[in-house]
Design a protein that fits this description.
The complex is a heterodimer of chains A (259) and B (282).
Chain A (H helix, E strand, L loop, with lengths): L4 E10 L6 E11 L4 E6 L5 H9 L6 E6 L2 E2 L7 E4 L11 H11 L4 H14 L15 H14 L4 E5 L7 H18 L2 E5 L3 H7 L2 E6 L4 E7 L14 H17 L7
Chain B lengths: L15 H8 L8 H24 L11 H13 L2 H33 L1 H15 L3 H12 L3 H25 L3 H9 L4 H38 L5 H10 L3 H29 L8
The chains are: A alpha/beta (259), B mainly alpha (282).
Family (chain B): Belongs to the binding-protein-dependent transport system permease family.
Pfam family, one (chain B): BPD_transp_1
Protein name (chain B): Binding-protein-dependent transport systems inner membrane component
Chain lengths: 259, 282
Amino acid sequence: MSPKLRIAGLHKSFGTGERRTEVLRDINLDLADNEFVSLVGTSGCGKSTLLSIVAGLQDFDAGDLSIDGAPILQPGLDRGVVFQSYTLLPWLTARQNIEFALKAAGYDRPTCRRIALEHLELVKLSGSADRYPAELSGGMKQRVAIARALSYRPKMLLMDEPFGALDALTRHQMQELLTQIWEEHRLTVLFVTHDVEEAVYLSDRIVVMGIGPGRITQTFNVDIERPRREEVMESPAFMDLQRGVHKAIREGSRRPEMA
Amino acid sequence: MPGERPAQTDPARPTKQARRRRSSGIGVPIARSRFLVIAVAVFVGLGLAWWAATGLGLVKPIFLPSPGSVAMQIAKLAADGTLWLDLKASMYRISIGFLIASALSIPIGVLIGSFRSWEAAIEPLVDFIRYMPVVAFVPLSILWAGTGDSQKFLIIFIGTFFQQVLMIMDNVKRVPADFIGLGRTLGLPDRKILTRIVVPSALPGIWDTLRISLGWAWTWLVLAELVAATSGLGYRITVSQRYFQTNTIIGYILLLGLLGLITDQVMKALEKVLFKQEGRSQ
């Protein structure tokens, strides 16, 4: 079966001439339909840059990027993006924030409203539909952002450390919620995180990136049965995998010329 | 040696030292009532000092008239209509001048805050002009626009427009990059990102800029009226100087301060209503 997302021979650098620095070298990565893939790696490995390139928000030097066989040239509604920072528009309520995206996708008013409410229910925020972002906690804001990114039915979801700014307890709740939603609805997800436990818990596959320049160093298949609930984090298989990924990240954080 | 360490006393019962530290010091909040009492006390104190200095004859009335004399003079000018005519002329000029400056500075500020090429074309020029003293433009403005209302508009414009443009540019630049990223991932064209995301997002900041620059506009209005005018608050101050009517001068200066304070408070109150859902702290 052809992949949902194909990244082939991708190169990316910042700056020109003397000050040119290579951030991504020869990235090859395919995501199967409905696969949940996490990108992990030490800071500066270019994982967020890679995600942002897939989103179409940054350009690249060379390589092929396609979704369902169609080349990615610019940002678009076929990819839903959840950012690390809170991107709810502060002058709109939770419901209106989702409607804003749906309107951009071309839905008529009554449909926007219906879909927005459905998706607020999906992230368990029906009661907060008419509250403004300033009245919502960080976790609630990210739930609305996830609902918004799902609402217009993108072909895949791109998430850039979406829970990075949340406290540990809220982060766990968000991980549970995301697993639940994903297991029920299935969607291709590319997920950037620095939290290995989170990556193991959520993913089908973990891609470890290293620095100097940013490249893929190792890939782990997560063969832990679904549905996954929090208890799974204490199983030996989970812990083993977590240790393995940690080790791979440590190895990847050494520059190859120094190793 | 626990005996030497007062920090080890029962934390539920703060020591005197600890309690004192909480009611003053850098950034320590105080009760609103306390704030008001201090603020009012300063006004009352200064007023009393003024009243005492004049009442005891420490200064000649020609330099500093008594509060009573100033109040009487303002009441008299209000009764014969002079005050209202002056106010009307000045209010009209500041409204029009400020509106022209704002109507031009908002779109230009948004443009140069969003597009780097426009910034390159306009920002250095505006930065240069804004360092030219407004006062130095007064003779030129009279040559160009005479001594009528349009010269007042011109001075207010020169004094506020260039500052506004740069401040609004900053307001626009402070729109989070991810907000624009969001717009792009939703496939919105630049024009819609500008009108639906950038402008609404920068609006509270732009409103603040308008509030601050309106305060400056008062200064430039009075300056223009002091130099060349046949009506207005600034004009009355110049005329009064000729006849040594210090009480009118002081009365009008106080009035100008009051007008500035009122407009500022009105703008602040409107800000709270307009942007109440945004919780300005974020």
